[in-house]
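Typical record was shown:
=====
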Amino acid sequence: MSFNYKYVKVEVCAFSLESCLAAEKGGANRIELCGSMYEGGTTPSAGLIQIAKQRVSIEIHAIIRPRGGDFCYSDDEISVMQADIRMAKQLGCEGIVLGILQPNGQVNIAQTKALVALAKPMQTTFHRAIDMTPDYSKALEDIIDSGCDRILTSGQKNTAMQGIEHIKNLVKQANSRIEIMAGSGVNVDNAQTLIHTGVNALHLTGKSIRDSEMIYRKEGIAMGGLSEVPEYEIIYSDEEKIRAVVEMLARK
């Protein structure tokens, strides 16, 4: 089977304006804009969306997630998600990213379908909540039924490479009815292998870490209450790591 690498898009998961700028400079096609890195991504602030839209020209898709934790939301939380979708639309986002499950782990079709309709004409990506479902194959069909444009998945494993066989099967089952994007642990060393699953896009952070500029450092206190979360490390998307993946695809 032959693959046209040049039609595979690169999406960068960005948690800051700095990372948005790096994504565009590195040649990415799209940004998934998030807040709360250590919770796996929550809805970014209106200010971050607004300034990012002013400073970059590539697509920005805002994650719509009112909190960390699971993906089963109360009526009040759905109301917050509705308000955030309206905000993202008003600020000019090209898409949103969400994932809603029932208590039994299956996709909540009704709630997803309603938010997809509210988001129009923005695109909707169903995120890695699919990796937390009990039936991967059924989840795909439910997400398609919900009207989403694409799915972000790591193949129900911690990383896309670990779940690569599941991703291959999902791509085959999808049969071009919905875009499939592989994410989690994606980098220049495994991008080519992941492309051979037939996915439409790769999702990566391009993560690097630098030391804080703080000279005075208060010891023995953690602002988030978790000592394992570093207070004096700055995590950002690295332009060169993003460019390495983009250029690898361009050479093929």
User: Anything to note?
Assistant: The chain has a mean pLDDT of 95. The chain has one domain: 5-251. The domain at 5-251 is CATH 3.20.20.380 (TIM Barrel).
